[in-house]
């Protein structure tokens, strides 16, 4: 999912060189230093692991979230670098070092106010896009979870009906794999286990008297 950069094998690599590679999900060409590429790849892996997308559309949203958060971090780094440009000229052994640095930051703002404002606007837009992508992803995952739970409940009901009729029931035939998303594969042993678990749980709940009903009867 995260392709390695193309490196020449014929001669040693200049450590100052940049990596250029086409991202497997977005198709975009990224130009990064080798160190940044390692950090970017880890950042993408961590983001995908956290959101655990299912299917290409969700994976694309997660990649958009990862890229947005990466861009936010870069915006902060650029802003820090702008303020650091003038601060590095301050002598560390100066008697009024902290005061001079503070004044220098004020001068930096006055000199680069337009650039800093653009960075803030840029970061704000990215943040809104990331929040929108996260909200869309969460809604998709909630809808998928609800649809999955409904499918399990339907399979459970059909299974109970088949048992009462003395028939053998295989949910994989009732829900053909080719017509369902990958996570709805009813030939999967884990899904079959869930169906059995739900059936036993329902039977257990039916066998326990309702405490509220017993209290009303006693009253």
Key attributes of the depicted protein:
about 220 residues; mainly alpha; two-stranded antiparallel ribbon; 2 strands; disordered N terminus
Structure commentary:
By secondary structure, this protein is mostly helical. The protein has one domain (52-210). The protein contains 6 helices and 2 strands, in the order E-E-H-H-H-H-H-H. The chain has helices at residues 34-51, 55-87, 97-164, 171-174, 189-207, 211-218; strands at 19-22, 29-32. The protein has a two-stranded antiparallel ribbon with strand order 1-2. A hairpin with a 6-residue loop joins strand 1 and strand 2. Helix 1 packs across helix 2 (55-87) and helix 2 packs antiparallel against helix 3. The chain is elongated, with a radius of gyration of 29 Å. The relative contact order is 0.07.
Q: What does this entry show, briefly?
A:
By secondary structure, the chain is mainly alpha-helical. The protein has helices at residues 34-51, 55-87, 97-164, 171-174, 189-207, 211-218; strands spanning 19-22, 29-32. The chain contains six helices and two strands, in the order E-E-H-H-H-H-H-H.
Question: How do the strands and helices of this protein lay out in sequence?
Answer:
Elements: E1 19-22, E2 29-32, H1 34-51, H2 55-87, H3 97-164, H4 171-174, H5 189-207, H6 211-218
Antiparallel strand pairs: 1-2
Number of strands: 2
What is the residue-mean pLDDT, rounded to a whole number? Answer: 75
Shape: elongated
| Gyration radius, in Å | 29 Å
Number of DSSP helical runs: 6
Largest sheet: 2 strands, antiparallel
Task: Please indicate the count of domains.
Answer: 1
User: What helical percentage do the residues reach?
Assistant: 55-70%
Briefly note the structural class of the backbone. mainly alpha
How far the N terminus sits from the C terminus, by CA atoms, comes to: 65 Å
Strand order of the largest sheet: 1-2
Order of helices and strands: EEHHHHHH
Approximate strand percentage: under 5%
Low-confidence stretches: 1-9, 21-27
């Amino acid at each position: 999912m995260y392709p390695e950069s193309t490196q020449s094998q014929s001669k040693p690599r200049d450590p100052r060189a940049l990596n250029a590679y086409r991202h497997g999900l977005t198709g975009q060409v990224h130009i990064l230093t080798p160190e940044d590429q390692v950090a970017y790849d880890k950042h993408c892996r961590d983001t995908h692991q956290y959101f655990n997308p299912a299917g290409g559309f969700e994976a694309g949203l997660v990649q958009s979230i990862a890229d947005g958060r990466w861009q936010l971090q870069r915006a902060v780094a650029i802003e820090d670098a702008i303020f650091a440009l003038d601060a590095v000229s301050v002598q560390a052994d100066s008697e009024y070092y902290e005061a001079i640095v503070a004044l220098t930051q004020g001068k930096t703002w006055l000199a680069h106010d337009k650039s800093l404002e653009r960075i803030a606007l840029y970061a704000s837009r990215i943040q809104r896009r990331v929040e929108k992508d996260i909200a869309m992803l969460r809604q998709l995952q909630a809808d998928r979870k609800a649809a999955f739970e409904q499918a399990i409940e339907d399979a459970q009901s059909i299974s109970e009906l088949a048992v009462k009729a003395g028939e053998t029931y295989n949910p994989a035939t009732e829900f053909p794999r080719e017509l369902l998303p990958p996570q709805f594969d009813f030939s999967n042993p884990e899904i079959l286990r869930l169906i059995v678990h739900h059936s036993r749980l329902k039977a257990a709940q039916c066998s326990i008297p309702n405490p509220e009903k017993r209290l009303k009867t006693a009253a």
